[in-house]
Write a structure and sequence with these properties.
It contains three helices and three strands; from the N terminus they run βααββα. The protein is of the alpha+beta class. It comes from Cellulomonas chengniuliangii.
């Protein structure tokens, strides 16, 4: 039996999350510290974010319209 049940779920780096939201990676880290987004720590101490949670949060954020002058 595995100690990590969510092993198959994709994890994103702060940079990948920042690209999706069009913000700086430090902003993503601040969101995690504020509890707006949960993070997982790697053995090296780096943060990783569950893709499903990020996508859910992203769907609640209004997207800028393309081609609007």
């Amino acid at each position: 039996m595995s100690a990590h049940p969510a092993e198959s779920e994709a994890l994103l780096t702060p940079s990948e999350v920042a690209t999706l939201f069009r913000v700086d990676p430090k902003t993503v880290t601040r969101w995690a510290k504020a509890g707006k987004l949960s993070s997982i720590r790697t053995l090296g101490g780096h943060r990783r974010y569950r893709e499903s949670e990020v996508r859910e949060l992203l769907n609640g954020v209004p997207q800028p319209r393309e081609g609007k002058a």
